[in-house]
Amino acid sequence: MGQAVPVWARVAALSFGGPAGQIAVMHRVLVEERRWISEARFLHALNFCTLLPGPEAQQLATYVGWLMHGARGGLVAGGLFVLPGLVAIMALSWIYVLYGQVGPVAGLFFGLKAAVLAVVAEAVLRIGRRALRGPALVGLAAAAFAALFLLDVPFPLVVLAAGIVGYLGARTGLMAFRGGGHGDGGHDAGGPYLLGDAATPRERVAPGRTLRVVALWAAVWLVPVAAILLVLGPGDVFGQIALFFSKMAMVTFGGAYAVLSYVAQQAVEHYGWLKPGEMLDGLGMAETTPGPLIMVTQFVGFLAAYRAPGALPPLVAGTLGGLLTTWVTFAPCFLWIFAGAPYVERLRGNRALAGALAAITAAVVGVILNLAVWFALHTLFRALHPVRLGPLRLDVPVWSSLDPYALALALAAMLALFRLRLGVPTVLAGCAAGGLALHVLGLV
Fold first, then answer.
1. Of 281, 277, 249, nearest to 262 (Cα)?
2. Cα within 13 Å of Cα(411), Cβ side
3. Would you place residue 182 in the very low, low, confident or very high pLDDT band (cuts 50, 70, 90)?
4. Contact in structure between 334 and 75 (CB atoms under 8 Å)
5. What's the whole-number mean pLDDT along residues 146-155?
6. Which has the closest alpha carbon to 204: 341, 69, 76, 74?
7. Closest by alpha carbon to 218, among 210, 206, 228, 229?
8. What are the backbone dihedrals phi and psi of residue 397, each rounded to the nearest 5 degrees, phi first?
9. Phi, psi (5° rounding) for residue 370?
10. What pLDDT, in 10s, does the model give residues 371-408?
11. For 241-261, what is the mean pLDDT?
12. Bridge partners of 392?
C-alpha cells in the first residue's frame, strides 16, 4: 500500500484529456510499467466499468485499487483520482464568476469552446472505429442519435434499450453482438503480473457482506441528500442539485461523454442553471485539468448555487453547491464498485453481458454524436430557430448568425487533432491562445 499511494497520485496528476487519455495513462502505468495487473484483467474491469452508470475512468481506478488492496485500496485510488480535478475546477469556477466576463478571460474561453468541439468530434470517431463492428451496431448508433436528437427520447431509455438488444442478440448467437473480445485467450500475456489472469480477488461473493456494503455506502451518499431535502426542501437550489445529480449517478450509463450529453441538456434547457456557452466553458475547464471529465458537473453545481444563493454569500453558496455536486456524483461510484466488483469478477467470460456491453457502446457513439452536434450548433451559431414537425424537434441554425472566427478555430483544432496528431492539452492551449489573440485584435 505504501508503494501504491504515490503511484495512484501520479496517475491522478497525469489524467488529462478525458476518459480515453486517463484510461491510457492507467494502462501504461499499471499494466506496462508496474505490471500490477494483467492486460486481460485490466480490460475486463474496463468493460464492466463502462456498463456502470457514472465516470468509467474513476471507477476503473477504484476497481483496480479494490482488486489490489480491498476497500482501502479502492478508496485511495478512486479518491486520489478525483482530488486534483476538484481543487482545479473549484479554483477556475471562482475565476470564472469573478473575471469571466473580463475581455482577456472571455477570449480564452472563446478559444476553448472551439477546441472542445474538436475534442468531442474526435471522440465520436475514435469510439466509433472501436465500437461499430458491422451494420447492426452502426444501426444501433444511428437509432440512438435519432432518438435523442430528433425525438427527445430520455437518455436512460436509449441506453437501456440498447443493452437489452445486445443481451438478447448475444443470447441468440448473433455474430453482431459477440462482445468485444477483450482479453480473449489471454493467459498472462506479457507477464508475470502481480494480479494475473488466474488470481482471485481479496473479497469473495457473500450476501451478508454485500448488504453491509450497500447499507454503508447508500448512507454515505444519501444521508446528506435527505438532510438537505428535509431542511431546505426540493424547490431550493441545493435540493435540486442533490436530487438531479443523485439521479444522474443512477441513470447515466456509457461514460463521461454520454453523461455530459444528459447533463448539458437538463442543466441548460430544463433547470436554466447556465447557458449553452457556459456549459462549453465548463467542459473546456474539465478538459484542461487533471481528473475525470465529469468534474464539469462541479462547475454546473457551482453556477447553479452561485446564481440562487439564498441567504448565503454567492461565492460561499457556489462553493457549497460545487462540493455537493461532486459528493453525490462520486459517492455512488464507490457503492457500485465495492458492492458489485466481487460479482463482476465471477462473470468474466459471460458472452451475453459482453454482447450487452457491445450494444451499449454502439449506442454511446450515437449519444456522443448528439453531444457533438449540440455543441457545434451552440458554438458556431449565435442564433437557433426551434422547429417542430409532428414528433420531431429540431433546432435549425440561423445561417446569417454563423461566427466565422469560431468556425476557423474549430477547423484549426480538428486539423491539429486529426492530421497533426497533437495532444488534447496542446490543442486546447493553442485554441485558448487563438481566442486571446482574437480579443486583442478586437475581433471577438
1. 249
2. 7
3. very low
4. yes
5. 83
6. 341
7. 210
8. -70, 145
9. -60, -45
10. 788 878 888 998 888 887 777 778 888 999 999 999 99
11. 78
12. 389
Residue 153 has pLDDT above 70, yes or no: yes
In three-state secondary structure terms, 150 is coil
Q: Tell me the three cell numbers of residue 198.
A: 488466474
**Each residue's pLDDT tens digit, 16-41:** 656 666 777 788 788 888 889 887 78
Cα-based distances in Å from 73 to 3, 36, 45, 238, 347: 11, 13, 15, 32, 22
HSE (CB half, 13 Å, CA atoms) of 145?
18
CA distances, 26 to each of 63, 65, 331, 342, 345 (Å):
12, 11, 21, 21, 19
As a whole number of angstroms, the distance between CA 430 and CA 115 comes to: 9
Cell triple for 392: 420531431
Alpha carbon of residue 422 to chain centroid = 22
Q: Output the nine-digit C-alpha cell for 111.
A: 478559444
Give yes or no for a contact between 357 and 50, defined as CB atoms under 8 angstroms apart.
yes
- Distance, CA of 23 to CA of 17 (rounded, Å): 10
The three-state DSSP-derived secondary structure of 154-219 is CHHHHHHHHHHHHHHHHHCCCHHHCCCCCCCCCCCCCCCCCECCCCCCCCCCCHHHHHHHHHHHHH
pLDDT in tens, 330-373: 999 999 999 988 887 777 667 787 788 778 778 878 877 887 88
Indicate the DSSP class of residue 361: H
Cα gap 41→246, rounded to integer Å: 30
Per-residue CA distances from 267 to 115, 212, 262, 295, 440 (Å):
22, 34, 8, 14, 32
pLDDT surpassing 90 at residue 221: yes
Grid coordinates given for 156: 436512460
Q: Which three cell numbers stand for residue 58?
A: 474513476
In the chain, what is the greatest distance between 2 CA atoms, to the nearest angstrom? 66
Q: What is the pLDDT of residue 222?
A: 94
DSSP class of residue 349 equals T
